[in-house]
């Protein structure tokens, strides 16, 4: 008798209502994964779930507010219920910015960004890692940023959250390696999404000037890196930060 095929793996993607998270969910679904899509915007998630189902794949929307610990706990439970078991792949993608010079940054602006981007990712990871540990297979993929490595004036809160995600990635990689759970980060450069749409033409030109590959990235460029890290082929890669930045920081 031949060994049975592994069950179809299930991926939970946060911040899936738009931008990079949406692209990750579509890409993972097209690669055959079951996807659980999480964010605050229920309407956008419902539309995306329809689109994924229309393509023949499985999708479950889950309400999630990463600034609220109770919402995170409830979302983790709902995701595992929808999955019918542990989450195999967690993509901590959701993120916010509240830019300003450090000198004038309010504690509220600092806390909002750290809570959503870093503490929220940690709490969700903590909630779903138990299942991964138990089944001795898991993939945790944290979406950091090029600025988490390079720094960026006017973004002390955001940069601290993204650098924090890299530290979290490395520590968790060491803690979970013995359980066959890999933990990696993806560090995008400038990617065409709502987050970068507000840039002026002048700002875009200045950014393009710093990108050796000569173009702003697409959400799909990041999704392809996430798909690789989620795969069996990436099983010997852990604690790594994969730059998807057109060469702007090497
Ligand atoms: P985006 O278009 O602004 O999307 C952000 C996503 O995060 C949305 O789906 C949003 O959904 C979700 N989100 C925000 N606050 C949330 C909260 N409290 N709870 C749950 N979900 C929340 O941003 P993006 O450009 O796709 O960025 C995605 C990730 O890549 C972020 O972590 C960002 O820092 C990182 N990144 C982006 C770039 C870039 O150039 N675009 C570069 C480097 C890194 P709801 O509003 O529906 O909740």
What attributes characterize this protein structure?
250 residues, alpha/beta, Rossmann fold, 7-stranded parallel beta sheet, 7 strands, disordered N terminus, binds NADP nicotinamide-adenine-dinucleotide phosphate
Structure description:
The chain is 47% helix and 15% strand. By secondary structure, the chain is an alpha/beta fold. The protein has one domain: NAD(P)-binding Rossmann-like Domain (Rossmann fold). Helix 1 packs across helix 9, helix 3 runs parallel beside helix 4 and helix 4 packs parallel to helix 6. NADP nicotinamide-adenine-dinucleotide phosphate binds next to helix 1 and helix 7. The site of NADP nicotinamide-adenine-dinucleotide phosphate has 29 residues, from helix 1 and helix 7.
Give a brief outline of the structure.
The chain is an alpha/beta fold and 250 residues long. The protein has helices at 19-30, 42-54, 69-83, 107-135, 147-150, 156-176, 194-197, 201-208, 219-230, and strands spanning 10-14, 34-39, 59-63, 89-92, 138-143, 181-188, 241-244.
Helix fraction by DSSP (H/I, runs of at least 4): 40-55%
CATH class category: Alpha Beta
Molecules bound to protein: NADP nicotinamide-adenine-dinucleotide phosphate
Q: Structural class of the secondary elements? A: alpha/beta
In the CATH hierarchy, the architecture is 3-Layer(aba) Sandwich
Name the CATH superfamily classification: NAD(P)-binding Rossmann-like Domain
Beta-strand level of the residues, as a percent range? 15-25%
Integer average pLDDT: 96
Rounded to an integer, what's the Rg over CA atoms? 18 Å
How many structural domains does the protein architecture include?
A: 1
CATH fold label: Rossmann fold
**How widely separated are the two ends?**
49 Å
Query: What is the overall silhouette?
Result: globular
State the low-pLDDT regions, or none. Answer: 1-5
Q: What multimeric state do the chains show?
A: single chain
Number of helices: 9
Order of strands across the widest beta sheet? 3-2-1-4-5-6-7
Q: What profile does the largest beta sheet have?
A: 7 strands, parallel
- Strand tally, please? 7
**Helix/strand order:** EHEHEHEHEHHEHHHE
């Amino acid at each position: 008798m031949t060994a049975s095929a592994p069950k179809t793996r299930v991926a939970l993607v946060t911040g899936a209502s738009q931008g990079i998270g949406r692209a990750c969910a579509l890409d993972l679904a097209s690669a055959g994964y079951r996807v659980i899509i999480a964010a605050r915007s229920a309407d956008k998630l419902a539309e995306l779930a329809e689109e994924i189902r229309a393509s023949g794949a499985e999708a479950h929307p889950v309400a999630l507010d990463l600034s609220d610990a109770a919402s995170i706990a409830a979302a983790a439970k709902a995701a595992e219920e929808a999955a019918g078991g542990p989450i195999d792949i967690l993509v901590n993608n959701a993120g916010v910015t509240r830019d300003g010079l450090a000198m004038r940054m309010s504690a509220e602006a600092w806390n909002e960004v750290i809570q959503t981007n870093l503490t929220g990712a940690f709490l969700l990871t903590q909630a779903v890692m138990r299942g991964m540990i138990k089944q001795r297979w898991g993939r945790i993929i944290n979406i950091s940023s090029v600025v988490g490595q390079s720094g960026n004036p006017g973004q002390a809160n955001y940069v601290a959250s993204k650098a924090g995600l890299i530290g979290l990635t490395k520590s968790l990689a060491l803690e979970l390696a013995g359980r066959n759970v890999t933990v990696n980060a993806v560090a995008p450069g400038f990617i065409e999404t709502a987050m970068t749409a507000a840039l002026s033409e002048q700002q875009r030109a200045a950014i393009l000037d710093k990108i050796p590959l000569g173009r702003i990235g697409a959400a799909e460029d990041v999704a392809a890196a996430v798909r690789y890290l989620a795969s069996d082929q990436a099983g010997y890669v852990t604690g790594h930060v994969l730059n998807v930045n057109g060469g702007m920081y090497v």
